[in-house]
Design brief:
4 domains, alpha+beta, four-stranded antiparallel sheet, 4 helices, Elongation Factor Tu (Ef-tu), domain 3
């Protein structure tokens, strides 16, 4: 073997030192822990984040779409024809029932009243003439002083004259009614809209176009729609005792306006229709709201939050702890006895925030895995770690979006 030169000696010494250090480190590691399969140290139970379920009362609500509707709508229409002489209201103002709105030219109707009044006076005068004549003929007929036929003719003439009086009186009443119709008044109290005519316009009785419309807006209706499936589900839940009614009186309703704000006043559900719309599969509901300031106008789109009932022992599970199996069923991983992982098939109901309302499959006190589920398998042993301060407790209210 040739002798090492002085230039190669430092390189060989460095290599020997590195090999010696590696051997010493390997010896230390082997003394600290035994080697596992493949030379790797054995792994302990995987850590998973869990949430402990709790049961608390939950007020169940539904958020339903709707439109505001006036409680009373009355169209102002002319009942006689003629020229409009005056408009006596301010558009958009409040009017009272019986308040004068328009005045139609009364000249022809006044003339009809005068003519009917004169005809009535003439008929009455004729009666005054025939009544004593008929009385005299009756007395003479009793003593056989006049023929019976003459007496009968006198009595018939009197009865005809009295009928003429009744007819003239009816004609006068009709003419007076038409004259009164020239004063167009508000049929109900409420807010009146814009006028369809101006002074000088010709109007006719029974015309298609209304002169104006009066609407009562305080209180105001909100017409809602709910799917028949939701209505049936709610009824069955009441019958099964899963939820109880929020109160004996009509259910409370709150409104969310078009801009996302909440209406300041609370309303009440007035009625639920008994017929399902065949085209949409929905049931109509109507709520009534006070509207003293006129903030709610007819035709506004709103969303109504309707109190359905109270679930006394509602259990919520975070949505991130729920998955779906190949059958489409909702499942969750639960840490059971001995920290073993169990897979549960759930029956979940409506969403509540970032959680699901559990109908079956989970109970209060159980630990559901919400973090690290990819490291957990059924029957595997894990180390449960509570997620920081996050416990799936039921809130006091819940809103279910409507169809």
């Amino acid at each position: 073997m040739p002798l090492l030169t002085a230039s190669r000696r430092p390189v060989v010494l460095t290599a020997l030192a590195a090999a010696l250090s590696a051997a010493l480190l390997a010896g230390c590691n082997s003394s600290a822990a035994p080697a596992g399969p493949g030379g790797m140290p054995p792994a302990g139970p995987a850590e998973v984040g869990v949430v402990t379920l709790q049961a608390k009362p939950l007020t169940l609500t539904s958020e339903l779409p709707g439109r505001t509707v006036p409680t009373v709508v009355a169209e102002v229409r002319p009942q006689v024809g003629g020229i409009v002489r005056e408009r006596l209201f301010t558009e958009g103002a409040e009017v009272k029932a019986g308040q004068l709105l328009y005045r139609i030219d009364p000249a022809t109707y006044q003339a009809s009243v005068d003519s009917a009044r004169a005809a009535l006076a003439k008929a009455r005068a004729n009666v005054e003439t025939l009544r004593p004549k008929a009385a005299r003929y009756k007395e003479l007929a009793e003593i056989k002083a006049v023929a019976q036929q003459d007496t009968d003719d006198a009595l018939a003439a009197l009865r005809q004259a009295e009928a003429d009086v009744a007819s003239a009186r009816a004609t006068l009443d009709s003419a007076a009614i038409n004259l009164a119709y020239t004063r167009v008044t508000a049929p109900v109290s409420g807010r009146i809209g814009k006028s369809a005519v101006t002074p000088g316009a010709l109007v006719t009785a029974g015309q298609a176009a209304a002169l104006a419309t009066v609407q009562q807006l305080d209180p105001i209706y909100v017409d809602l729609t709910q799917s028949s499936a939701d209505a049936l589900r709610l009824k069955r839940a009441f019958e099964a005792g899963q939820i109880r009614q929020a109160g004996r009186n009509q259910a409370a309703v709150t409104l969310i306006l078009e801009d996302g704000s909440r209406y300041a006043r609370e309303g009440r559900l007035q009625f639920t229709d008994i017929t399902v719309n065949e085209g949409t599969g929905t049931v109509a509901l109507r709520a009534v709201f006070p509207n003293p300031k006129g903030d709610l106008l007819p035709g506004m789109y709103v969303r109504a939050v309707l109190d359905e009932g109270v679930a006394d022992k509602a259990v919520l599970v975070p949505q991130r702890g729920v998955s779906r199996n190949v059958k489409g069923e909702a499942t969750a991983l639960v840490v059971g006895a001995g920290n073993k992982v169990e897979q549960r098939v759930l029956a979940v109901g409506r969403p509540v925030g970032d959680s699901w309302l559990v109908n079956a499959g989970l109970a209060a006190g159980e630990k559901v895995i919400v973090e690290g589920s990819q490291k957990a398998r059924p029957n595997a042993v894990v180390t449960p770690v509570p997620v920081d301060g996050k416990v799936a407790a039921s809130p006091t209210t819940n809103t279910k979006p409507g169809a």
